[in-house]
Amino acid sequence: MSKSRIKKLTTLAKTKFLSLYDLEYEDKKGKTRNWTMASRKSFDTLSGQYFHGKKDNPDASIIAALHEESNKIVCIRQFRVPLNDYIYELPAGLIDKGEKFDEAAKRELREETGLELVKIDYEKTNKKVYASAGMTDESSALVFCTCKGQVSDKYLEAEEEIEVVLLSQEEVKELLKQEEVKIDMRAFILLQAFVQLGEKMFK
Asked: How far apart are CA 8 and CA 23, in angstroms?
């Protein structure tokens, strides 16, 4: 691990799932600067990573799944409060303490869609990717897998508003033409690839 350029960590605000921190760091010219960051991690966890070289584990699992019976990619439409609207996403969820990323993927796929994870392609799976590193240190495992079963909403948590959508290549192509539709960045990239590759993405 290279020498940490972060010199001081200060908590600005703390909620159940997210905290806001001020990072005092040294820029490339040695000047002290400050950066505001949102994180799902506790002060102690971040301190361990920045100042003591402790391992940074992924916060969540994002699931790129092919439904075996239909050869369709599994997506969800979820209401997101900051957007005040529904957005197309891939199934995903936070990794519980002591849980492995693949265990979380299996659990979250079941909870959000009712589908059963069949097989993970560990060669295509990335254990830690970042979506918005200028704002947050949040990282996710991007899990490529196949699944089976019937879609169900009976495992959803009370506050979740999710509609499961199984999409063929042609249906994805039509969806991506609709400029007014909101799509998560990671889902957009995967859907573009699915248009080109179809089920080959998962095999």
From this structure: 6
Listed in sequence order, the residues at least 6 apart from 15 whose beta carbon sits closer than 8 Å to its beta carbon are: none
DSSP 124: T
Angle between helices 169-176 and 185-197 (to 10 degrees): 130
Q: What are 103-145's pLDDT values in tens digits?
A: 999 999 999 999 999 999 999 999 999 989 999 999 999 999 9
43, 9 contact by CB (below 8 A): yes
* DSSP strands (E only) in the chain: 6-14, 19-26, 32-39, 60-67, 72-80, 85-89, 92-94, 116-120, 126-130, 139-148, 162-167
Q: Which two tokens stand for residue 122?
A: 């560990």
pLDDT of residue 2: 67
pTM: 0.93
Q: Which residue, among 58, 79, 55, has the nearest Cα to 142 in the 3D structure? A: 58
Task: Supply 6's token pair.
Answer: 């972060």
Residue type, 14: K
Rg for the chain (alpha carbons), in Å? 19
Selection from 38, 35, 23, 21 nearest residue 82 by Cα: 38
By CB atoms closer than 10 A (0-12, 13-18, 19+), residue 25 is middle
Pairing mode of beta strands 126-130, 139-148: antiparallel
